[in-house]
């Protein structure tokens, strides 16, 4: 009987490892999500800051709505999210929101059309998504 229980435990462990490997492979979508999010965030900040109003703002906001819609549909169609996904995603979005708000508010008030503000600002705004994608890929 002890041998039977041992083989059951070994089979259960093998199955758990197989499932863990499958989940890791199936959650790779979130790396792509974060990289697209980061790149879009940076690009759209540049558009808002460097293209004359109202066109820059209209294109930037329209582009952002389209990007978030596409990424939301993409995320909703994914079958698996790893443990801690919600918290990790919330941290990424919260960090992005703080940086985005600071860059946009200060830029629109004091640096309208000034590339020396908007280019570094776009890089900073893209970092939460890009760093998040890098860290997610390493897990």
UniProtKB/TrEMBL annotation:
Swiss-Prot/TrEMBL keywords: Membrane, Transmembrane, Transmembrane helix
Spans traversing the lipid bilayer: 30-51, 57-76, 88-111, 117-135
Name the UniProt record assigns to this protein: TIGR04086 family membrane protein
Organism encoding this protein: Streptomyces yunnanensis
């Amino acid at each position: 009987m002890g041998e039977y229980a041992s083989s059951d435990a070994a089979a259960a462990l093998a199955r758990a490892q197989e499932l863990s490997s499958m989940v890791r492979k199936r959650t790779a979508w979130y790396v792509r999500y974060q990289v697209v999010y980061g790149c879009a965030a940076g690009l759209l900040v540049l558009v808002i800051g460097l293209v004359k109003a109202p066109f820059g703002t209209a294109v930037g906001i329209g582009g952002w709505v389209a990007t978030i819609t596409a990424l939301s549909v993409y995320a909703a169609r994914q079958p698996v999210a790893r443990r801690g996904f919600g918290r990790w995603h919330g941290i990424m979005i919260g960090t992005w929101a703080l940086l985005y708000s600071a860059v946009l508010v200060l830029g629109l008030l004091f640096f309208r059309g000034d590339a020396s503000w908007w280019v570094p600002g776009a890089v900073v705004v893209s970092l939460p998504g890009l760093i998040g994608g890098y860290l997610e890929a390493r897990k």
